[in-house]
Design brief:
The chain is mainly α. The protein has one domain. It is built from six helices and no strands. The N and C termini lie far apart (79 Å).
Amino acid sequence: MTDHWTGSVMIALAACALLVTGVWYAAIRIDRMHRRVDRTRATLQLQLARRASVALDIAHSGLWDPVTSIVVAEAARSAIEAEGLGPEESELTVALRAALGDQEQLVEDLNGDDPVKADALRELADAWYRVELARRFHNEAVSMTRRLRQRRTVRWFWLAGRTPMPVSCDIDDAPPAGLELAQPLA
């Protein structure tokens, strides 16, 4: 009879150890995923600020007509001052698309005789591409974290604590046609 109780106690202890180990692993994983979301969000904000800064520099460079420069500069300033992932970023995208014109004009500017304008557009293309990548990485991290937080173990043991559910970034960051043809700066 003692052997039966000893065996049952050992099985119960082993089951408890497995449960604790599983919960501990899930807690570590959820914590890492939340940190990853924070890092990707910071990277996205940095890349958005860089794109707005490049747009502001181009607006002040005199490469566009005065009205276009003012519109882009105001949109870029709003995006920089917002310091976030709000509608100001989409407004900057719309203003830049309008300023860059149609695809033929953009390709002509990239391949034209004015190396200053071509370099400025290449820098903008590079900044724009980095924004797209940063947004994709951020949204993927958010998606993975949300899926992990839906698991029973995470919900039952309240492993996410009071951490708010991460939110994906839905901004308009599609570049104008032709800008992807810009060769990166050396």
